[in-house]
Design a protein that fits this description.
480 residues; Thrombin, subunit H; Pdz3 Domain; 7-stranded antiparallel β-sheet
C-alpha cells in the first residue's frame, strides 16, 4: 500500500490536506538621530533537565500535569479573501465590467502560548497568506492576533496577542528526548474542541520530506510520535510527562488522510531558535560554514583508510573559497565529525546544527585529517537567502507567490509557482514573460524560487507553463 506524507491545514485554498483543519531598556538617542526601538523578548520559562532520572514511577493519571498545560494551548482561526478572475470569454459575452469573483476561505489550527505577554508559537502553514488571525483561549476569550514572522523552511510561525498574565508553557530541552518517553499531543482536531492524546516518542531526528514540496531547502529534524494527531492539531503542543513543551505538532504520514500513528513535531529547540530570530529581526538569521559536503559512507571511509563505522561529513570543496571554513583552515577531504562537541553524522545534520547558530559566533569544528583528530576554531558567517528572490534570466526578476502578490496581481489561490515581478526595458525576454505572470514549471520541473527556476533551465530551447490573467499557456523560449 502506498503511503503518502502530508502536512495536514484546514486552509482550503492550499490544495493539499494539512493538519491545521525580557524587555531591554533603549539607550538614549544621540543628538540628531532617532533612537532604535527596543527589542522586546518573551520571558520564556526553561527546564533543561531530562524527563526521567533512570527510574520510571508507576502513575495512574496525568490529569494534574495536564491541568496546568491545557490553558496554554489555543485555537488559531485564519481567514483570507481569494479573488478569482472571470474568464475572458465571459467578459466578451457579457461585458468587460463583470467583477472578479471573491471567496472567503477559513482555516483552523492550534497554537501554544510561550510567554505571559502573548507570544504564541504555531505552524507556518496555519497562518500563511491569512488576511486575519483570531486566537481563542480555553476560557472562551478571543483575541485578534498579529503576525510576527514565519519560516516556511521549518514550518514555524510566531504570532502575538495583546494580553498579560497569560498561562504559558515551560520549554524543555528537546535534545534530551529519548525513544520511549511519554508525550501528549494537545490541539483542536477537526474543530471539535481541545483534545489531549497520548503516545510515546517513536523516533527523533526524523527527515520525512514533509516540507520539501513548499521549501526545497527546508530544515527537517522531526520528533516522531504515535500520539494521535489529526486535522486541526497543526501548531499545537507536544508535551512530556512533566508538562513541558518538547515540540510543535506539524504533520503526519498517512495513506487515508487521517491519523495512522505516525505524527511529526518540530523540536522545541529548533522552534525556539527560529522564534528568537523572528522576534529580533523579523526573519530567520542563520549561520553559514562555507563547505560543500557529503555524508561519509562506510565504503568511502574504508577507501580513506578509516574504520567502516566512522561517522561524519566529507568535505568535497570549500564554497566560497574565501568563506568562514576556508579562512579558518578547513581543507578539502577533511572529515567533519562534530560542532562544539556535538556529533555530526550526516550532511543534513551539519546544515541543521550550523543554521541554528548565530552568525559571528566562534565554534569549534572537530575534524579528521589524514586519520588524525583535530579541532579548528571557525567564526560562522551569515547564510544569505539570495536563492529565493532575484533574476533567473537576463532582466527577468521573479519571486515566490505571497499573499501580497496574489492580491496585487489577482492570482487564483490554486495557482502555484513564481511571479514575474519586474522586467528590464532592455531584457531580451521583454515580450516573453509579462509582469504578473506566474511561471508554474520550466521543462516540466515545478519551480518555487530563483534557485529551482535556474536549475530547471537548459541550454538552448526551453518550455514554460505560464498562468497570466486567468489563462494557462505554454511559452517556448531560448536561453541566450
Amino acid at each position: 500500500m502506498k503511503t503518502t506524507l502530508a502536512v495536514l491545514s484546514l486552509v482550503l485554498a492550499t490544495g493539499f490536506v494539512a493538519l491545521s483543519a525580557q524587555t531591554e531598556k533603549a539607550a538614549p538617542a544621540k543628538s540628531g538621530k532617532a533612537a532604535k526601538p527596543a527589542v522586546v523578548h518573551p520571558a520564556v520559562k526553561l527546564d533543561p533537565t531530562a524527563v526521567g532520572e533512570g527510574k520510571a514511577p508507576v502513575l495512574t493519571s496525568y490529569a494534574d500535569v495536564l491541568a496546568d498545560v491545557r490553558p496554554a494551548v489555543v485555537s488559531v482561526f485564519s481567514s483570507k479573501i481569494v479573488r478569482q478572475r472571470v474568464p475572458d470569454i465571459y467578459r466578451q459575452m457579457f461585458g468587460r465590467n463583470i467583477p472578479d469573483r471573491e471567496q472567503k476561505l477559513d482555516g483552523l489550527g492550534s497554537g501554544v502560548i510561550i510567554s505571559s505577554d502573548g507570544y504564541i508559537l504555531t505552524n507556518n502553514h496555519v497562518v500563511e497568506e491569512a488576511d486575519e488571525l483570531k486566537v481563542a483561549l480555553s476560557d472562551d476569550r478571543e483575541f485578534t492576533a498579529k503576525l510576527i514572522g514565519t519560516d516556511p523552511k521549518t514550518d514555524i510561525a510566531v504570532i502575538k496577542i495583546e494580553a498579560t498574565g497569560l498561562p504559558h508553557l515551560t520549554l524543555a530541552d528537546s535534545e534530551k528526548l529519548r525513544v520511549g518517553d511519554i508525550v501528549f499531543a494537545i490541539g483542536n482536531p477537526l474543530g471539535i474542541g481541545q483534545t489531549v492524546t497520548m503516545g510515546i516518542v517513536s523516533a527523533t531526528g526524523r527527515r520525512a520530506n514533509l516540507l520539501t514540496d513548499r521549501a526545497p531547502d527546508a530544515y527537517e529534524d522531526f520528533i516522531q510520535t504515535d500520539a494521535a494527531i489529526n486535522m486541526g492539531n497543526s501548531g499545537g503542543a507536544l508535551v512530556d510527562a512533566k508538562g513541558r513543551l518538547v515540540g510543535i505538532n506539524s504533520g503526519i504520514a498517512t495513506n487515508n488522510r487521517g491519523n495512522i500513528g505516525i505524527g511529526f513535531a518540530v523540536p522545541i529547540n529548533l522552534a525556539r531558535s527560529v522564534m528568537t530570530s523572528l522576534i529580533e529581526h523579523g526573519t530567520v538569521i542563520r549561520g553559514y560554514l562555507g563547505v560543500s559536503s557529503d555524508t561519509l559512507t562506510p565504503e568511502v571511509a574504508e577507501q580513506l583508510g578509516l574504520p567502516r563505522d566512522t561517522r561524519g561529513v566529507y568535505v568535497n570543496d570549500l564554497n566560497p573559497a574565501d568563506g568562514p571554513a576556508a579562512k579558518a583552515g578547513v581543507k578539502r577531504e577533511d572529515i567533519i565529525t562534530g560542532i562544539n562537541d556535538r556529533p555530526v553524522t550526516s550532511r543534513e545534520e551539519l546544515r541543521l546544527i550550523v543554521a541554528q547558530i548565530i552568525p559571528g559566533t566562534k565554534v569549534t569544528v572537530q575534524i579528521l585529517r589524514d586519520g588524525k583528530p583535530r579541532s579548528i576554531e571557525v567564526t560562522l558567517g551569515k547564510l544569505e537567502d539570495d536563492a529565493v528572490v532575484g533574476e533567473f534570466l537576463p532582466g527577468v526578476t521573479i519571486e515566490p507567490i505571497s499573499a501580497e502578490l496574489r492580491r496585487q496581481f489577482r492570482i487564483d489561490a490554486r495557482v502555484e509557482g513564481v511571479v514575474v515581478t519586474a522586467i528590464d526595458d532592455n531584457s531580451p525576454y521583454q515580450g516573453v514573460f509579462p509582469v504578473g505572470a506566474v511561471i508554474e514549471w520550466i521543462n516540466r520541473v515545478p519551480v518555487t524560487d530563483v534557485a529551482t527556476a535556474k536549475e530547471a533551465l537548459r541550454d538552448g530551447r526551453n518550455l514554460a507553463s505560464v498562468h497570466y490573467r486567468g489563462v494557462y499557456r505554454l511559452v517556448p523560449f531560448q536561453t541566450r
